[in-house]
Amino acid sequence: MKFFWKKEKCKDWVEACKKKVKALGMNPKDSKWMWKLKNRNKAEADSSENLHDGFVALQDNSLKARMERIGDRFSLLFFIASALLINFIIEAVSRHSFVKAFEYLSQSKVVFLYNSFLIFVTLTLSYLVRKRLFASMIIGGIWLIGGIANGAVLSYRTTPFTGTDMKLIKSAADLMTKYMSMDQMILTAIGAALVVIAFVIMAVRGPKYRGRMRYRRNIILIVLMFSSIIPVTRLCVETRTISTYFGNIAIAYEDYGFPYCFWSTVIAKGISCPNEYGESEIKAILEKDGEDSYNEESTPNIIIVQLESFFDPALVKGLEFSEDPLPNFRNLEKNYSSGYITVPSVGAGTANTEFEVISGMSLRYFGPGEYPYKTVLKENVCESVAYNLKDIGYSTHAIHNNEASFYSRRTVFSRLGFDTFTSEEMLDITGYTPLGWAEDEVLTSAITDCLKSTENKDFVYTISVQSHGGYPSEQILSDPKIKINGLTDEAATNAMEYYVNQLNAVDQFIGNLVEELSNYEEDTILVLFGDHLPSLGLEARNLSNRSLYQTEYVIWDNMGLKAKDENLKSYQLAAKALDKADIHVGTLMKFHQKRSGTDKYWVDLEALQYDMLYGKKYMYDGESPYERLKLTMGVKDVTISSVTTDIQGNVIISGDTFNASSSLAVNGKQVEETKFIDKNTLMVAGVQLNTGDVLSVNQVSSGGRVLREGSIYTY
Fold first, then answer.
1. Are 287 and 594 in contact (CB under 8 A)?
2. Exposed/middle/buried for 617, CB within 10 Å: 0-12, 13-18, 19+?
3. Lowest mean pLDDT, pick from 94-98, 185-189, 257-261, 568-572
C-alpha cells in the first residue's frame, strides 16, 4: 500500500507512526507491512490495524471525511434508529394515521420492537459494501415501498398487501386505471421518479466507508443476526406476542405488524404435513365416505353464480333505502334453500372464495394470505367439483365477464377440470359501469349458450363483476334509482349509494336469469352466492349478523326440491348443491356430505387436502387420475360469411359472433386496426387483400394474445 503523507498538516504524528513501524521491525515504505503483521500476536495486529486506519485517515481530513468516520463508528446505532423509524412510518401509512401508529406503538411495544428487529437484521447486509448508507437506503426503501403498497391497497380493499399480490403485477396496470384517478397516478409516477433520482444521487455522490473491509467479521455478524430470527420468533410465538395462524389476515396485520405478517405470506405457503399422515390413515378416512352414487337418468344441469361483492345491505344497522335493492334475491330466499355462507376474505380475494367453492378445500390450512391460483395451481391439477361431474358425463364450463388473464384463470381453469372458458374477450358486452366494470346482464345469454352448446348435462361456474369496487367517494350518479339515508359521512354515503345501485342492477340480472331458466326444458339447479363483502369500511359491530365474513346464498331449482335453510362454509357449497341433486361423487364432495359436523372433521379434511396436493396421493394409489385439460375459449364459433370493400377502400367483414376483441388475421398475421361495428360487422382500413388470401377473425386479449381462432375463409 502506498501512503501519501500530508506533512504540512501533521508532521509530528507521521514521524511517530514511522517510528512505531520501525520499532516493529519493518520498513514503512514496504507495501506489504500489514500482511507481515499477521504472524504477530493479536495485540500487535490490532495496534497495526489501528495504525493503518490512521494512515488512511490522513489522506482526507475534510468535513465530509470526518462525518464519514463518525458515521462508520456509530453505524450500528444508526441502523437501529433507522429500523425503528422505518417500522413506525410503515405502520402509520398502513393505518392511514400517525395517531393510530402511536397507539399501536404504545399498546404493542414488544410487537413493535420485534418487527423493528426484523428490519434491523436486513439492514446489516449493508456491512458487505463500502457505500453503507446507500445500501441501507436501498434496503430501507424496499421496506417502505412494501408499507406504502399496503397502505394503498388498504385504501380500496380490506385485505392487506401480501406476498401473493406481488405475483399479480401483470394485472397492476388494469387495476390502477380502475382504482386510481389520473391525478393519483400522476402523483405516484412523480413520487417514484423523485425516489429514483435520490437513489442515483446517493449511488454516485454518497459517502463510503474508507477503512479496511473486514469481510470475515462482517459475514459472521450477518449470519448470526439472521440466524437469531428463528429463536426470537419462536420465543414471541410461545409468549403469544405473535401468532403463526392468521384467522383474519386483516386483523393479523394490525395486531402483529406489517413486516412479520408480510414476510410470513412470502415464505409460508402450502399445507404442512399433518402429524398423523400415512396410507392407512387416508384409506380409513375414505372408507367412511362410502361409494359413489347418482342417478344417471335424472341428473340436472348445475349452475353456480358467484356474485361479486354481493351481500344484503339491509344488514347494515341504521341504513335506509328509498326502495328494496334486492327484491328478486329476497324472494328467492323466502322460497328456496338459503342461508349465510362463510367466505375466507373481506373486500377482496375473489379467487380464494372461488377456489374454496370449486375445490371443496379450506384455505385455513394454506399459508397466510396465499392464493392457490398463484402457487400450487400454477403447476398442478386439483380434484374439483368440475372434474367430479365430468367423470359422470357432464360438460364443464366457466364464465367471467372480465379478462381471461385476471387471476391467471385461463391457466388455472384447465387444471380445475373445465372444458370451456367464456371470458370478456368472448362476450359482446354493451354496458359498463362508471368504474369500467362489465355489467352482468350479458351473463344470462352466456349461461344459456353453454347449456345449448352440448347434448350432455352441463356444469356452469359463472363469476360476475358488476358490483366490483372501489366505490367512489364523490357522487357520480346524477339521478340514482335508489337513494340511501343513515350515514353521516358524505363520502361514505356516496360510496354506499353507488354500491347499492350496482347491487340493484345485479338483482335485476338474477331475476332475468331465473326467468330464463324457468322456461328451460331441462332440469336445472342454480346456486347464487356472494364472494365477499364490499370494500366499504364496514365493521362487524355495525352489521346485524355481526360478521364480516358472511354473505348470503340461495339454491333455486325448477324441479320442486324441498327447501332447507342452513348456514354453510364456502368449501361446502358445491357439495350441498350436488347433494340436492342426489349426486354423491368426488373425494371432498362426499366427505363434506357425509362428515360435516362429525368428530375429526377438520383433522381429516386437512389430511385429505395435504395428500391431494402435496402428499404421496395415497387416495389415488400414488398417482392422480386427473390431467390438465385443453381449455377451449368460448362456446360459439366466430365465422366470416362475406368480405367486401367500400368506396373508401375499407375492408368490410360480415359474419357472426364478433365483438370488441375480434381481430382480422390475414395469412396468419393479425391486423391491429380492426374496428368493431356490431356483432355481425368488422371494418379494416389500409389492408390490401389478394385472391387466395386466408382470412380468419380471432378473439384477441388486450395484450395481443390470440385466445380463440375463428373459422377459415378464403378470399
1. no
2. middle
3. 185-189
Q: Where are the domains of the chain?
A: 7-61, 71-266, 297-620, 637-714
Question: Given this model, what pLDDT does residue 274 score?
Answer: 92
pLDDT tens digits, residue range 427-441? Answer: 999 999 999 999 999
Q: What is the 3-state secondary structure (H, E, C) of 18-67?
A: HHHHHHCCCCCCCCCHHHHHHHCCHHHHHHHHHHHHHHHHCCCCCHHHHH
d(CA 558, CA 570) in angstroms, rounded, equals 23
CATH code for residues 637-714 = 2.60.40.10
pTM of the model: 0.80
Decide: 9 and 15 in contact? Cβ < 8 Å: no
> 39 and 68 in contact (C-beta within 8 Å)?
no
| Grid coordinates of 600 | 375429526
Residue labelled with grid coordinates 363483476: 465
Residue 570 near residue 372 (C-beta atoms within 8 A):
no
CA distances from 676 to 103, 139, 145, 424, 697 (A): 56, 49, 41, 15, 11
Q: Helix, strand, or coil here: 227?
A: helix
- Minimum mean pLDDT among 25-29, 366-370, 632-636: which range? 25-29
pLDDT at residue 41 above 50? no
CA–centroid distance for 713 within its chain: 42
**pLDDT for residue 114:** 96
Give the separation between CA 480 and CA 269, rounded to whole angstroms.
45
**% of residues, the chain, pLDDT over 90:** 65
Task: Please tell me the distance from the alpha carbon of residue 87 to that of residue 77, in angstroms, as a whole number.
Answer: 16
Residue 636 · residue 645 · CB < 8 Å: no
Asked if the domains at 297-620 and 637-714 fall in one CATH topology, the answer is no
Confidence bin at 215 (pLDDT 50/70/90): confident
Distance CA 472, CA 466 (A): 14
Distances (CA, A) of 705 to 6, 457, 664, 709: 68, 31, 13, 11
CATH value of 297-620 in 3.40.50.300, 3.30.365.10, 3.40.50.620, 3.40.720.10: 3.40.720.10
All three cell numbers of 146: 412494501
Residue 27 predicted with pLDDT over 70: no
> Which segments of 154-271 does DSSP mark as H helices, in order?
172-179, 182-205, 215-227, 229-238, 249-256, 258-267
Helix 573-580 with 350-359: angle, nearest 10 deg:
40
CB of 673 closer than 8 Å to CB of 636? no
Percentage of the chain exceeding pLDDT 70: 85
**φ, ψ dihedrals at 251, nearest 5°:** -70, -35
Could you tell me if 123 and 79 are in contact, meaning their C-beta atoms sit under 8 angstroms apart? Answer: yes
Query: Whole-angstrom Cα distance, residue 682 to residue 640?
Result: 10
Residue 439: DSSP 8-state: P
Arithmetic mean of pLDDT over the chain? 87
The answer on pLDDT for 10 being more than 90 is no
